[in-house]
Structure formats: structure tokens, C-alpha cells
């Protein structure tokens, strides 16, 4: 049993609680800005190419100082250093947490159990680059000698969301002559739709699975192999030219029938949701090329270095993590919206859902004691302007406090020209208008002054004081994407450290997997499943009656 005080009994926690009750009984961003002309400038931090304005938050300098004291008391930077040193901070799986080694400088030394892992990382990156170039140039051909024109990534969770999100984000940088698709769902419709118009002779399957035991992925990969063999005359030798694996598990890869030579390796110290800059990024690398992939890694590294070395006051992941704690733990905010103003970031929030919710959706501490404080929020959101015409109403005038991140860019992505490029200013006008409206609202007096009839004043009033962070960069490049992802990775880290939870395990997904295995025979063969609860039993019976 640990003798460190529980989080909520720490004096730093109590100080924040008191501060919330005293200084923020009736928060007013209008007043905070009016009283402090330097606020916008001071509460902006620049990291690499990112400008991060957090001045529209319900904080004062005192709030920020108190939050930093909490971070010191909970030893966030101590745990950060242990992570970068390769210590086994994933306590329940007894693993190091070293996604930062995946993008370390080539001459860096990062040791796991006394062995420098950077040369291995670079060696795999080199093999990936070589393979990606061969596919892109047509040197790598399929079984019938035809050039590969389609890449289908089969994976789920971290083996899908990261590469799929980054592929969308960097579409403008991809080889447009290639078709790249991502299949994750065990619903056969996913694979069907991804392959129905493809020629097997020109299709490469990239099977991405850290464990290579994930039922969805193995099932889809098996069906993909059947599809391929059916299309190529059944010669098993075709598999070697059309299947590669990204995994930590060479044994299972070989057992599946993929040649170990066609496997790109990574390591147990890379968590699935932190893995798209490892071999798991191969489909992305084929799409954007090794050079752009390297630029993305450099972007990650910029923010890693910042997180490792910047002082607390100017440490962006620390600040963003602490702001989340401020709302989640002291304002009872349950959710956090991430609203990108870029069509290319359409999968960014879905990616962050796994990153954040699988990492910090925990209710026991690192030593197994229950928490009696809120942990990770529900993360949600879609590209901004679409959201404006759907759910922003609730953010503006509903009863819930929803802190939100607005992510936008000063320039459209390079390819856009003419009228489409000009639309960018309209997009960004919305971006700026929304955070302004959320922060400052519209008072009844202002509404009245516009001549609005008295009975509509209340309806047209905006309370304001909805906190937002604005993240702005010149453009969405591979490097900027790496910077953005690393920013969120480390933000999630900071929150897990303060909450004293293991952000790197995911035991919560196991029970469903076990039960699915147990129920499946009842669906396929009608076998009795002992111990099935009456509700599920009745549903299974109904399913079998309906199943054709
Ligand atoms: O759903 C749990 C999980 O283990 C994720 O953490 C992981 O990203 C995903 O499944 C896929 O796992 P794998 O890469 O081993 O197939």
C-alpha cells in the first residue's frame, strides 16, 4: 500500500478546489480580458510550427500556478523523465513506454534494459523505406508481374486509426496514382467495399497487428487471402507477393502464412495507440513516400524535445493537460471536443478518441486502489463547419460545459487553387468567429440593442465563458501532423500522471473479447452457452430465429 496521499487529499488539490469556489463562482472571460491587456499574448505558447492560444480559458495566472503546483506534487516531470529513459512505467504490463524512441534522432541513445534501441528503430525504418520505394516505383510486382496499384491496410484500433487518420490528413502528399484503403471492421462489408473494385493482381495487403492475434484482423486477413487466391488462380505462392505484416509477433505472422522476410517489426514498448510512427505506418509511408514520413517523424521529435525540456509555464502538453484537469476535476466537465477546421483532419478526432480514452479511461490507480476523482473525458468532435450546423447549438446554449480545441491552418493545403483556395478564408472566418462567440457570448443588453423583441431576448442571449484552445499553424504538412499528434500524446500522458493511472494498458477491452468468443458458437451452431444471462440468451434466440 502506497503512503503517498490520495490525489484529492493533497493540499494542492484542495487549493484548486477553493480557488474554483472563490475566483470562478461566476466566471467571466469578458472581465478577465478587460482587466488584462496582455492576456492573449501571455497565454499563448509556440511550439515548433504550432501557435497555441489558451487565453480563452477560465483561468487566471493564479489558476495556472496552482495547476502547476499540482503537477509538481504528482511528479509529472519525474514520470516523464522515466518514460524517456525507458523505464517500465507501464506497470501492469511491466513494459517500457518508448514511442518517443521511434522518432529519436539517428544518433540518440535510448536504452531498454541496457540496450540502445535506436539502431533497431532506424534499421526497420530503412527496410520500410526500401520496400515503400519499391512499391511506389513499380519495382515490387505482384504474383503475375503486374505493378502494385492498390494497398489495403488491414488492422484495427491503433493498427488502423493512426495510419488511416494520417493518410487522410496527408492525402495531398500522397501518390495519387495509388489507391490506399483501410479495413478494420470485422463486418464483412468493410473488406467487401474496400476490395470489390480492385484487381487482386495489383493489390497489396498490409496486415497490421501488434499481437497478430486480434480476431478482427486475423479474420479479415484470412478472407483477404481467400479473395486474392480466388482471383489469382489459387496458387499459394501468390501470398508472398501480396501480403506483408507489421507486428511484434513473428511466430504468429509465420503461422498465418506470411513470410518472415515480409514482416516489418516493432516492439512491445510501443503501445498500439502510439504506434503509427513505427512499422504500423507502412501503408502511410507507401502513400506519402519515405521522405515525407521522415519529415513527420521530425515533427514528432520537435514536440518530444519541447515536452522534455520546456519549463512548466511554457510547456504546451503540460498546460493543455492541466487545463483538462481543471475542467474535468473542478468544473465536472465530462467531455472534451476536438474540432478541426480542415477537411483533411476528418479522422483526427476519432484517432484521438483511442489515444485519450483507451489511455485514460481508467478507474484504478497504478497500484490498483480505486480512484475517487474523475479521470479521462469523453473525447468527441468532427470537422468544425459541419459541427456548426449540427451540435454547436448545444455547446453555445446548452447546459453543459464543453471545453473544446479548435485546430486550424492559415493556408489551404498546397494543391488547392483558385476559388477553392479562396474558400479557405471563409472557413477560417468561421474558425475565429466560433471561439469568439463561445468565449464572449452576447449579453441581453447587446441583443436588446439590436432591436430584438423582448420575448426573444433570452433565446438570443449567449452566456459565453465556454473555454477553448486555439491551435493554429501555417499549413497541414507531414511535420505539422507529427507535431500535433505528439502534442496530444504528451497531453494525455500529463493527465494520466496527475491522476496516477496507468495510461498505457487497456484491460478494459478484454472482457468483451472473451465474451464474444464464448457467444459466437451459440450464433453459428446454436450451441448452449453456459451461464448466459436471461437477456442475452433471449436476444441470441431471437437472432437465430431472424438469421437467414
Ligand atoms: O482494442 C484493444 C487493442 O489492443 C488496442 O489497444 C490495439 O490498438 C488494438 O486492439 C489492435 O491490436 P493489435 O495491433 O494487436 O491487432
TrEMBL record:
User: Which pathway does it serve?
Assistant: Carbohydrate degradation; glycolysis; D-glyceraldehyde 3-phosphate and glycerone phosphate from D-glucose: step 2/4; Carbohydrate biosynthesis; gluconeogenesis
Q: Which GO terms describe its molecular function?
A: glucose-6-phosphate isomerase activity
Question: What Pfam family does this protein match (any one)?
Answer: PGI
InterPro entries from the xrefs?
A: G6P_Isomerase, G6P_Isomerase_C, Phosphoglucose_isomerase_CS, SIS_dom_sf, SIS_PGI_1, SIS_PGI_2
Where does this chain mainly localize? cytoplasm
List, alphabetically, the Gene3D superfamilies matched. 1.10.1390.10, Glucose-6-phosphate isomerase like protein, domain 1
Q: Which domain of life is it from?
A: Bacteria
EC number, as in UniProt: 5.3.1.9
The residues responsible for catalysis, as annotated, are 358, 389, 513
Q: Which UniProt keywords apply?
A: Cytoplasm, Gluconeogenesis, Glycolysis, Isomerase
Task: State the reactions this protein catalyses.
Answer: alpha-D-glucose 6-phosphate = beta-D-fructose 6-phosphate
UniProt subcellular location: Cytoplasm
**Which top EC class is given?**
isomerase
Q: Which family does it belong to?
A: Belongs to the GPI family.
Classification via NCBIfam families: PRK00179.1 (NF001211)
Role according to the record: Catalyzes the reversible isomerization of glucose-6-phosphate to fructose-6-phosphate.
Q: Which HAMAP family match?
A: G6P_isomerase (MF_00473)
Q: What is this protein called?
A: Glucose-6-phosphate isomerase
UniProt organism field: Streptomyces tropicalis
- Specify the taxonomic lineage: Bacteria, Bacillati, Actinomycetota, Actinomycetes, Kitasatosporales
Amino acid at each position: 500500500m502506497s503512503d503517498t496521499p490520495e490525489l484529492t487529499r493533497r493540499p494542492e488539490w484542495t487549493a484548486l478546489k477553493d480557488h474554483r469556489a472563490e475566483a470562478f463562482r461566476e466566471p467571466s472571460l469578458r472581465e478577465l480580458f478587460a482587466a488584462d491587456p496582455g492576456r492573449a499574448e501571455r497565454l499563448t505558447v509556440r511550439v515548433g510550427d504550432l501557435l497555441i492560444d489558451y487565453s480563452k480559458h477560465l483561468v487566471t495566472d493564479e489558476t495556472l500556478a496552482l495547476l502547476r503546483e499540482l503537477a509538481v506534487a504528482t511528479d509529472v516531470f519525474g514520470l516523464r523523465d522515466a518514460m524517456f529513459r525507458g523505464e517500465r512505467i507501464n506497470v501492469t504490463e511491466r513494459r517500457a513506454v518508448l514511442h518517443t524512441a521511434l522518432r529519436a534522432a539517428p544518433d540518440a541513445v535510448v536504452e531498454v534494459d541496457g540496450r540502445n534501441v535506436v539502431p533497431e528503430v532506424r534499421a526497420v525504418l530503412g527496410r520500410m523505406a526500401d520496400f515503400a520505394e519499391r512499391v511506389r516505383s513499380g519495382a515490387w510486382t505482384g504474383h503475375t508481374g503486374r505493378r502494385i496499384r492498390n494497398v489495403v491496410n488491414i488492422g484495427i484500433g491503433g493498427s488502423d486509426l493512426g495510419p488511416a487518420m494520417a493518410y487522410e490528413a496527408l492525402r495531398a502528399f500522397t501518390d495519387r496514382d495509388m489507391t490506399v484503403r483501410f479495413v478494420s471492421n470485422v463486418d464483412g462489408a468493410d473488406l467487401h467495399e474496400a476490395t470489390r473494385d480492385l484487381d487482386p493482381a495489383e493489390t497489396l495487403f498490409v496486415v497490421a497487428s501488434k499481437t497478430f492475434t486480434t480476431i478482427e484482423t486475423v479474420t479479415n486477413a484470412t478472407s483477404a487471402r481467400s479473395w486474392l487466391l480466388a482471383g489469382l488462380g489459387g496458387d499459394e505462392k501468390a501470398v508472398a507477393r501480396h501480403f506483408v505484416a507489421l507486428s511484434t509477433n513473428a511466430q504468429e505472422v509465420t503461422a498465418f502464412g506470411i513470410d518472415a522476410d515480409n514482416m516489418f517489426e516493432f516492439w512491445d514498448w510501443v503501445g498500439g495507440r502510439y504506434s503509427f510512427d513505427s512499422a504500423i505506418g507502412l501503408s502511410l509511408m507507401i502513400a506519402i513516400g519515405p521522405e515525407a514520413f521522415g519529415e513527420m517523424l521530425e515533427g514528432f521529435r520537435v514536440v518530444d524535445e519541447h515536452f522534455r525540456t520546456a519549463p512548466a509555464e511554457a510547456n504546451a502538453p503540460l498546460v493543455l493537460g492541466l487545463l483538462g484537469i481543471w475542467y474535468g476535476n473542478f468544473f465536472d466537465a465530462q467531455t472534451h471536443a476536438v474540432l478541426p477546421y480542415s477537411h483533411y483532419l476528418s479522422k483526427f478526432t476519432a484517432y484521438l478518441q483511442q489515444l485519450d480514452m483507451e489511455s485514460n479511461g481508467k478507474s484504478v490507480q497504478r497500484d490498483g486502489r480505486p480512484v475517487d476523482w474523475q479521470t479521462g473525458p469523453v473525447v468527441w468532435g468532427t470537422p468544425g463547419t459541419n459541427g456548426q450546423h449540427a451540435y454547436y447549438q448545444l455547446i453555445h446554449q446548452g447546459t453543459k460545459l464543453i471545453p473544446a480545441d479548435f485546430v486550424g491552418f492559415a493556408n489551404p493545403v498546397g494543391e488547392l487553387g483558385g476559388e477553392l483556395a479562396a474558400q479557405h478564408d471563409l472557413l477560417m472566418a468561421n474558425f475565429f468567429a466560433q471561439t469568439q462567440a463561445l468565449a464572449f457570448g452576447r449579453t441581453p443588453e447587446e441583443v436588446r440593442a439590436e432591436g430584438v423583441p423582448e420575448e426573444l431576448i433570452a433565446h438570443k442571449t449567449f452566456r459565453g465563458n465556454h473555454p477553448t484552445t486555439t491551435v493554429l499553424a501555417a499549413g497541414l504538412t507531414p511535420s505539422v501532423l507529427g507535431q500535433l499528434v505528439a502534442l496530444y500524446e504528451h497531453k494525455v500522458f500529463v493527465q494520466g500522471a496527475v491522476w496516477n493511472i496507468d495510461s498505457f494498458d487497456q484491460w478494459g477491452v478484454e472482457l468483451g473479447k472473451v465474451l464474444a468468443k464464448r457467444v459466437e458458437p451459440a450464433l453459428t451452431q446454436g450451441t448452449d452457452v453456459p451461464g448466459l444471462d436471461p437477456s442475452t440468451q433471449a436476444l441470441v434466440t431471437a437472432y437465430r430465429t431472424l438469421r437467414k
